[in-house]
Amino acid sequence: MSGFSTQWLALREPADLRARNTALADDLRTRLGDVSPLRVVDIGAGTGANLRATAPLLGPQQSWRLLDHDPALLAQAALALADWADSSADDAGQLTLEKDGLHIAVELVQVDLAAHPEAVRAGDPHLITASAFFDLVSAPWIERFADAVVAAGATFFTVLTCDGRDLWTPPHEADAAVAAAFRADQGRDKGFGAGAGDAATDLLLHALHQRGYEAHARESPWLLEAADPGDAALIAALATGTAAAAEETGQVLHSRLEAWRAARIAATHCRIGHMDLLAAPKRG
């Protein structure tokens, strides 16, 4: 699976950072903040935004393996992480970053996670993490992934999984129709089987509980205001992308979608629902 542009990932990163659930982030810090050196696997890593947001919660010595199917995104991750760090070194694709007192080793790995979810176990990670990933995968793939997490005995932390609870202001008469068409598009196979979409967090919770993990999910919505230039650009991109995905289903007339898209680009604010989840082996 690929197809996510670096422009889209950069546009959403500030909103993602604001939206992350602080209670779960604090729980992660409590659980793993004293583990050093800490081994982390980041799946569907894209341009490294999840590392940039999560590393400050963790200990001073960290080793990250960034897994993605798209080599262009991994190449961009190397550049973006070097730019983010206070200092960096690149030895044949092995990055060493220094940031605010953290020493972070980074390995960039191209892998087909759809075929090989067990790849998350390589390197004996303490933490397996992801951002904006699980609504794209299938229910059977989530079961296979949960097996891999439990076999590793790792803590699992994922953020910004779509939950479908979106609200645009002001309302528009086509909101329900477009939302239904967008959910149908989410269910398409994106390389992992039929997409779990809004059900992904519940599927993860069930799979992990069934395997003896304790797991908790909390809301992490985008709260976007058109008065903010960065948010306004994200609102416009969301409106265009949502309309395009809805049109792929053929469920909504093109003229109606165009009217909805124009109205949504002009929206004053919107709430885009997400969930964060933290899971770990039961204590004792």
Overview features:
alpha/beta, nine-stranded mixed sheet, three-stranded antiparallel sheet, 9 helices, 12 strands
Walk me through this protein's architecture.
- This protein is an alpha/beta fold.
- It is 40% helix and 26% strand.
- It is built from nine helices and twelve strands.
- The protein has a nine-stranded mixed sheet with strand order 3-4-5-2-1-6-7-12-9, sandwiched between helices. The protein has a three-stranded antiparallel sheet with strand order 8-11-10.
- The chain is globular.
- The termini are far apart.
- The mean pLDDT is 95.
Summarize the structure.
With 284 residues, this protein is α/β, with parallel strands linked by helices. The protein is 40% helix and 26% strand.
- Main-sheet strand order equals 3-4-5-2-1-6-7-12-9
Global mean pLDDT: 95
User: Approximately how much beta-strand content do the residues carry?
Assistant: 25-35%
Based on helices, strands and strand pairing, what is the structural class?
alpha/beta
The dominant shape is globular
Question: What's the helical proportion of residues?
Answer: 40-55%
Over all CA atoms, what is the radius of gyration? Answer: 19 Å
